[in-house]
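Sat 14:20. Reprocessing the chain from the morning session after the first attempt stalled halfway. Input below, unchanged.
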Amino acid sequence: MSQCTTPGRLLDAAEELLAVHGPAGTSVRQVLRRAGVANAAAVGYHFGDKAGLVAAVGRRVVDGVVADRERVLQDLPDAAGVEALVDGWVRPIVALRCAGRGRYAARVFTRLFDEPRERWEANGAAAVRASADRYCAALAPLLPHLGGSELAWRWQCVTATTDFYAVGALDSGEPAPRPDDVDRHVRRLVVPGSALLRADATDRRGTG
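Finished this time. C-alpha cells:
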C-alpha cells in the first residue's frame, strides 16, 4: 500500500480493482474488503460515493502525469525537437508502468475516457485532453506539413500506442518492466512516434 491512512488504503485498493474490472465490475464492498477497512461508511465519508471514489482514483494518477508533462513543456528549450516532445508525453506513463504499482495505475489512466463525458472534469480526462492540445500547439511549428486536424489525429495515434504499452498489450511475452527499464522503453515509443509525426501528410486537403 502506498499510504497507511484509510483514504490511502481505499484509493490503493480501488486502483487495483478498477484496473482489472473497471468501474462497472468494482463494488464498494470489494474495495472495503481489499483495503481491510471494516467501516462500511468509510467510502461515503471520505469520497461521497462510489463515483467520487472512482474519480479520486483517476485524479490521483492523472494529476501526477499531467504535472510531469506540463513540466516538460515549461522546461524544454526553444530549439527542442519532435523527439523531446514525444519523450515528455510518453515518459510519465512508462514510469508508471515500470514502478511498483504501475501496472494498476497505468491501466486506470487508459480508462479515463471510457467514462461518460460529463465525468471527464472530475476524473481528469479533461485535463489530459487540455494537455494534449498544448503539446500539439508546441509541435505544430515543427511539423508545418501537417494541418491541425492531421496533427491531432497522429498525436492520438501516439497516445493510443502509449496506452497499449501501459496495459501490457505490446509486451509480446516479455517480462514485466522494472524501474531501470524506463529509458529503454521510452525510446521504443519515441522512435516510431516521432517517425509517424514526421511522415508525409496522407491527405493534402487537411494541411491548410
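The chain has one domain: 57-206.
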